[in-house]
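Sat 14:20. Reprocessing the chain from the morning session after the first attempt stalled halfway. Input below, unchanged.
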Amino acid sequence: MTEPTASRRTVLCCAAVALAGATAAGCSSSSPSPSSGSGGSGKEEPKSAGPIDLGPAADVPVGGGKVYREQAVVVTQPAAGEYKAFSAKCTHAGCLVNGVVKEQIQCLCHGSRFGISDGAVQDGPAPKPLPAYQVAVQNGNLQVTKG
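Finished this time. Tokens:
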């Protein structure tokens, strides 16, 4: 049995994430595709049976956002009371985005940037927008439904 080896893309991705001060858990050696968890295993993301409770909506700043790494979700608030949710997996190489800065969702693996209101690519190399999810606020908490 041979040991699995890391591809050049995986090594570079993880190095970039590590240099940025984030964990290397978001790196993926697979081509862009929906995958589950924060490990980038390349497995298909399971359809959600119901909404995921992400906690207080107050944690998401107006004009910014928050990345929920364990759930691979990023929630933004482009305007007061208007919440948007997207997959936190970059459409370029599957790395998890690392944060929301200056009204852009940012992926440090290769420099992709996405709009906080629609997930659209604002700076490549990402080939397509982040997939959008349904989001609602119930009892002050964010409820996100994937799929």
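The chain has one helix and ten strands.
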